């Protein structure tokens, strides 16, 4: 019994691009030969079925099965004819087969080719997987990111040129130099660029990049181009062109989607930024998964006019058959003439609707961009209003600042008076500050230590607050660290500490009748008494930072083991 691709199938990989070849006379035939070679390698050359003409022109249900089955591979093709019998208007291929390791899992490969008006061919492919229907048992882990080898064979073929918009696709990552920075930047801003660019920046700490560019490029093949910024000099040169909003930090990975608008600050949020600390926290496998999910599985790959399935090509073939019948029976009967005339009208209307769909899609993108710009302006107005209130409250607080704080507790209360719209101090913070001040022979009551403590709390209320609520930083730890050489910001605890419910319970306090989590903290020093911790929570509803602990190092897995 033939199998079909179910609705619940998971997309593993998809891509689409235009293929041209100036030195190949019949490009559609050439491409189908390449896919047949891949198919023979996949299925095996012992069966002669793949060497017959059906592979090029499609199964003929009158004399052939709807699907060919070779071993466990189910295959079928389809085409819509054109005046040239060797070069159909469009062609489609489908393969379904079981997973070699997980026998209950099924895989499908779909490939379509369609002639463009400029002589090039539109190539699309979708690879999917699913568990067989009614399967009961342990479900396997999702398969790792991968791309079919036939996509690479197209990009590596010197006689073919593969494009997305005005970008020529490459299978390997591109090493950027100081001389090529401006050229790549110009490509980045082009309105005709339809291909995402992935920048992988050099890290001075590791003296290299933090992810494998070859591995990333292999997973994103046909969907994005990977550019490596291999030195700090190249990173600096590229950032000179990119500017503050679109810059790519040392050690980071940044994805630049098509349609960059430097005049619209809100546009920068579309271009995903993965910082060095984020990469270190999640690891290369996770970064690869994030990029693959976003670009090779869930990306805006297809155009509204793309043929991506057998149904699309069946429709095209019916159109061709109807036109042919109309020509052959022209003048035979008045009724037939009316039918063909109506059909021509419907075909013309379908083309009009298709054109309108493309136009509306373009207008929709423009409206989305305009809406994003308006939203940004509203948010900016809110930020300005909040800033004015903030400055007014700080001016009021300065009136009460008659002397410098002489204890950890006074530092907390003084900074809160200066920034009442920014921070709140929980009772637990005042209590822990008092307890810590009494320890180590009053070490944290000395003027030098109080200056350090003041800088820490003041930095929370100013720099960190701005990063959280004004700049909306996606890279808090690194951005905060760039402003302070003596302090580090940690947004979470270590894995072992997080596994311990008792230790994590210590990081939850009551404030205003509400339980809040104060895991996030700013830290100074690692050896007593030269050690200070400031734990806090982010309250986004009220746009405030809640200080919940100020003093000793809180117990964690490492200190418990000592």
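Q: What amino acid sequence fits the structure above?
A:
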């Amino acid at each position: 019994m033939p199998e079909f691709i179910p609705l619940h199938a998971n997309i593993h990989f998809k891509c689409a691009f235009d293929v041209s070849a100036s030195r190949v006379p019949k490009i559609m035939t050439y491409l189908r030969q390449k896919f047949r070679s891949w198919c023979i390698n996949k299925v095996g050359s012992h069966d002669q079925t793949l060497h017959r003409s059906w592979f090029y022109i499609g199964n003929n249900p009158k004399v052939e099965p709807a699907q060919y089955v070779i071993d466990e591979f189910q295959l079928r093709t389809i085409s819509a004819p054109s005046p040239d019998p060797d070069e159909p208007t469009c062609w489609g291929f489908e393969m379904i087969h079981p997973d070699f390791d997980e026998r209950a899992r099924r895989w499908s490969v779909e490939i379509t080719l369609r002639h463009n008006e400029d002589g090039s061919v539109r190539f699309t492919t979708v690879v999917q997987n699913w568990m067989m229907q009614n399967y009961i048992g342990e479900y396997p882990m999702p398969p790792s990111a991968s791309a079919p080898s036939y996509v690479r064979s197209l990009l590596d073929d010197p006689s073919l040129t593969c494009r997305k918009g005005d970008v020529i696709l490459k299978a390997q990552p591109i090493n950027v130099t100081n001389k090529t920075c401006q050229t790549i930047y110009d490509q980045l801003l082009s309105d005709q660029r339809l291909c995402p660019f992935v920048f992988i920046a050099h890290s001075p700490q590791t003296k290299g990049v933090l992810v494998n560019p070859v591995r990333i490029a292999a997973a994103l093949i046909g969907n994005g181009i990977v550019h490596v910024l291999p030195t700090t000099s190249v990173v600096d040169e590229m950032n000179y062109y990119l500017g503050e909003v679109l810059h790519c930090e040392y050690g980071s990975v940044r994805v630049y989607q098509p349609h960059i608008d430097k005049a619209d600050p809100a546009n920068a949020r579309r271009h995903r930024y993965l910082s060095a600390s984020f990469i270190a926290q999640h690891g290369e496998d996770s970064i690869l998964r994030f990029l693959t999910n976003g670009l090779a599985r869930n990306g805006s790959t297809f155009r509204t006019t793309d043929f991506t399935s057998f149904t699309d090509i069946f429709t095209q073939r019916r159109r061709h058959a109807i036109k042919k019948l109309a020509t052959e029976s022209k003048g035979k009967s008045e009724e037939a003439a009316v039918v063909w005339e109506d059909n021509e009208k419907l075909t013309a209307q379908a083309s009009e609707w298709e054109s309108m769909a493309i136009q509306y899609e373009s207008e929709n993108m423009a409206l989305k961009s305009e809406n994003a710009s308006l939203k940004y302006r509203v948010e900016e107005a809110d930020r300005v209003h909040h800033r004015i209130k903030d400055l007014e409250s700080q001016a009021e607080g300065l009136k009460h600042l008659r002397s410098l704080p002489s204890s950890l507790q006074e530092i907390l209360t003084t900074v809160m008076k200066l920034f009442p719209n920014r921070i709140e101090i929980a009772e637990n913070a005042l209590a822990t500050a008092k307890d810590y001040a009494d320890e180590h022979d009053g070490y944290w009551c000395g003027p030098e230590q109080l200056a350090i403590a003041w800088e820490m709390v003041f930095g929370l209320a100013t720099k960190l607050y701005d990063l959280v609520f004004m700049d909306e930083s996606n890279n808090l730890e690194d951005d905060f660290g760039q402003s302070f050489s003596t302090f580090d910001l940690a947004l979470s605890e270590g894995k072992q500490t997080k596994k311990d419910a008792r230790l994590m319970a210590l990081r939850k306090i009551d404030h205003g009748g509400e339980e809040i989590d104060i895991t996030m903290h700013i830290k100074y020093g690692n050896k007593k008494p030269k050690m200070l911790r400031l734990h806090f929570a982010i309250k986004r509803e009220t746009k405030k930072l809640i200080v919940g602990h100020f003093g000793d190092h809180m117990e964690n897995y490492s200190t418990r083991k000592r």
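Q: And what stands out in the fold?
A: The longest helix spans residues 334-399.
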